[in-house]
């Protein structure tokens, strides 16, 4: 096991726990409502009254930062779970049964992988209009292929193992083999894949929100805050820097945790000498 990833991974857990903790405690820690407008306080620098200053509409930046992580993390979690569930179902069935299901899957896989992911997300969100539903559909349709392709490969390896053949000889049905033996043996790769994909999902949500196709103002979202602050970057650079740093720390912590989990599961598989 590469122990060099353990300490960074623990650092990632601490950073992520702090971000989640501040987001959950936002109603308690925020001095004012994140959407409260006070034009008399427009573009105020950081002070005792406003720890991170105010934006162009006089809204307290500290309050908006505390609430801003909620939407990004929640949307990314839901979209990643949805794309993983769909991709895992399709990939498992295609890899296990082969034949026509697998050929059909490969046709759709080639179609979706041949389309630029970002352009497809923008097109879907643009056609359906800015909303939570369109954002979820756009993210799931552009993310499920990555899960499905890797799951399909793992299932094709697992179904040829001796213990699977033994289960078939004992009369175990396909669904029993899939649910009780194949899927549990993929949990390591699935967890690692989930942590890496959720980071990409956060970036996708941020990109769409920045373009006005994701989270809509006046919602306190980090990417929306960056987009709103573009016109005042010279006079108030902290309006972009603070939410940008928060987003970088969130992605950095998730990547550190993903590296640590990958090493942990690699070690377990090596010690087990294969599949269980």
Q: What is the end-to-end distance?
A: 20 Å
Kindly name the structural category: mainly alpha
Spell the H/E element sequence: HHHHHHHHHHH
**Unreliable stretches, pLDDT < 50, 5 or more residues?**
none
Principal-axes shape call = elongated
Quick check: average pLDDT?
83
Strand content: under 5%
According to DSSP, the number of beta strands is 0
Task: Work out the radius of gyration.
Answer: 22 Å
Largest beta-sheet characterization: none
Helix content: over 70%
Q: Number of DSSP helices?
A: 11
Plain-language structure description:
There is one protein chain. Helix 3 crosses helix 9 (187-210). The model has no long low-confidence stretch (mean pLDDT 83). It is built from 11 helices and no strands. With 276 residues, the chain is an all-alpha fold. It has helices spanning 6-24, 26-29, 61-97, 99-113, 117-128, 132-158, 162-169, 174-182, 187-210, 222-228, 238-272. It starts with 5 loop residues before the first helix and ends with a helix. The longest helix is centred in the first third of the chain and has 37 residues, at 61-97.
């Amino acid at each position: 096991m590469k122990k060099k990833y353990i300490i960074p991974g623990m650092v990632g857990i601490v950073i992520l726990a702090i971000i989640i903790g501040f987001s959950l405690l936002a109603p308690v820690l925020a001095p004012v409502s994140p959407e409260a407008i006070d034009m008399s306080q427009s573009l105020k620098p950081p002070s005792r009254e406003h720890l991170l200053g105010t934006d162009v509409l006089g809204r307290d930046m500290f309050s908006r930062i505390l609430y801003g992580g909620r939407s990004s993390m929640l949307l990314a979690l839901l979209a990643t779970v949805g794309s993983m569930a769909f991709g895992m179902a399709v990939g498992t069935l295609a890899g296990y049964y082969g034949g026509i299901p697998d050929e059909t899957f490969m046709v759709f896989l080639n179609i979706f992988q041949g389309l630029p992911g970002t352009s497809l997300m923008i097109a879907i969100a643009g056609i359906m209009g800015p909303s939570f539903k369109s954002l979820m559909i756009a993210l799931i349709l552009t993310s499920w292929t990555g899960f499905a392709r890797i799951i399909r490969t793992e299932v094709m390896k697992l179904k040829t193992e001796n213990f699977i053949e033994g289960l078939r000889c004992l009369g175990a049905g396909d669904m029993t083999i899939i649910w009780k033996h194949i899927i549990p043996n993929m949990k390591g790769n699935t967890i690692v894949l989930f942590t890496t994909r959720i980071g990409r999902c956060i970036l996708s949500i941020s990109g769409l929100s920045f373009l006005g196709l994701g989270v809509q103002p006046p919602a306190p979202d980090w990417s929306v805050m960056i987009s709103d602050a573009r016109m005042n970057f010279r006079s108030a650079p902290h309006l972009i820097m603070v939410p940008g740093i928060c987003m970088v720390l969130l992605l950095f912590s998730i990547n550190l945790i993903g590296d640590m989990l990958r090493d942990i599961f690699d070690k377990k598989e090596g010690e087990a000498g294969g599949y269980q």
